[in-house]
Write a structure and sequence with these properties.
It is a single chain. This protein is of the alpha+beta class. It has one domain: RelE-like (YaeB-like fold), CATH 3.30.2310. The chain contains two helices and four strands. It has a four-stranded mixed beta sheet. Strand 2 and strand 3 form a beta hairpin. Helix 1 runs antiparallel to helix 2. It starts with a strand and ends in a 14-residue tail after the last strand.
Length: 98
């Protein structure tokens, strides 16, 4: 399956990297690795996480309080958000209507 990232996800990743770098340099690399592991996990079986807000699904990172919100569209995985689990739930919903 092809993975397509919403343009705003890069700013979310960058914000997480900046936060963890400021907190403790070097931890930002662990954050990126955790996100990459989550993407690999969803690529193995993108339909495994059940829909939590149809048609959206999410995969949660192992170490950091983030989740990757996505939907399946044909042979494409559309990543809509890389969101912190305790900040502004649902903010990403407006992205798909633009």
């Amino acid at each position: 399956m092809k993975v397509v990232w919403h343009p705003e996800t890069q700013a979310e990743i960058d914000a997480g990297v900046d936060f963890y770098f400021e907190k403790q340099p070097g931890v930002e690399d662990d954050f990126i690795a955790d996100l990459e592991a989550a993407v690999r996990k969803l690529l193995k079986d993108p339909r495994f996480p059940r829909e939590f807000d149809p048609p959206y699904r999410r995969v949660v990172t192992e170490r950091f309080p983030y989740q990757i919100v996505y939907r399946i569209s044909g042979d494409c995985i559309r990543i809509v958000a890389v969101m912190h689990q305790s900040r502004r739930p649902g903010y990403w919903k407006a992205r798909e209507s633009r």
